[in-house]
Write a structure and sequence with these properties.
alpha/beta; Rossmann fold; eight-stranded mixed β-sheet
Length: 285
């Protein structure tokens, strides 16, 4: 990872080909809530094996990115991601977003469609609505103080809930999270809480028909987090995609078996295969 200035932040960015031709379409990886670019670490080799340029960013408040606490929404993240592309003179990218990162990708595609050549939306947030009562419950649940106060066993339980079968490699992700303290923990908790609010404040589910870019929807068959089981206990990941899929003008979908919400980390080969196949179609056009 390298560090680059983006407003008040020092963004941690991993670029597989910093001197690459900006006219060649890169893959832009966007992680989800409470995560970082490490989510894609196990798939990195497969994604870059054919020389495709891949760029991954730790969003403000996340991972190795450093900077002040912020009170902005998902569009704020879009602006920083566009800045990463602008500093490399890249006009457009294949946006690959996981969970909250998928909702960020859709917001970018709606506001500046020329910058989004296509999307791969993995375990996507943003496809289901939340009413006023549900919104209030979520905001109350994910307050910064309660996030920061989570004990190590709670952190482990939350991480395990993201997998169908948690791989041994996830242990160091748990350790990184439990080792946060002081100002670093405070910034993490604040960013997590702001991410929840951002997803609720900037919904995209009513505008799926406007997303004309080639899009692939990918979800794990055993995803226990999307759709939200607390509010929709009878729903399933497959049903969610089947409802959303017809609303996208130019989409395909894939359900990956033996995969939970953190699909890119749990099933890196399957994740990379889906991304590569989408990218090949975009670059062959």
């Amino acid at each position: 990872m390298t560090v680059e200035r983006s407003g008040a932040f020092q963004l941690a960015v991993r670029d597989s080909d910093p001197q690459g031709d900006p006219r060649e379409l890169p893959i832009l990886l966007i992680h989800g809530l409470g995560s970082s670019a490490l989510l894609f670490a196990r798939a990195w080799g497969a994604l870059t094996a054919d020389g495709t340029r891949v760029i991954a960013v730790d969003l403000p408040g996340c991972g190795e990115t450093r900077g002040p606490r912020h009170s902005m929404g998902l569009t704020f993240y879009v602006q920083h991601l566009l800045g990463v592309l602008d500093r490399r003179n890249i006009p457009a990218a294949h946006w690959v977003g996981h969970s909250m990162g998928a909702q960020i990708s859709m917001l970018a595609a709606l506001s500046l469609p020329e910058r989004v050549a296509g999307m791969t939306l993995v375990s996507p947030a943003g496809l289901e609505p939340f009413d006023r009562v549900q919104r209030r419950l979520l905001l109350d649940l994910f307050r910064p103080a309660s996030i920061a106060a989570a004990r190590s066993r709670q952190v482990r339980a939350q991480m395990e809930a993201g997998f169908h079968r948690m791989p041994a490699e996830a242990e160091w992700l748990i350790q990184r999270r439990t080792n946060l303290s002081g100002g670093q923990l405070e910034r993490y908790a604040h960013a997590f809480s702001r991410g929840v609010r951002g997803m609720l404040d900037e919904p995209v589910h009513e505008n799926l028909e406007k997303l004309t870019q080639p899009t692939k929807l990918v979800i794990g068959a055993q995803d226990a987090l999307v759709p939200n089981r607390f509010f929709r206990p009878a729903d399933t990941p497959t049903k969610l995609l089947q409802r959303a899929f017809p609303r996208f003008p130019n989409a395909e979908m894939a359900v990956i078996d033996r995969a939970g919400h953190l699909l890119p980390f749990e099933q890196p080969e399957a994740f990379a295969e889906q991304v590569r196949s989408s990218h090949a179609k975009l670059t062959d056009r």
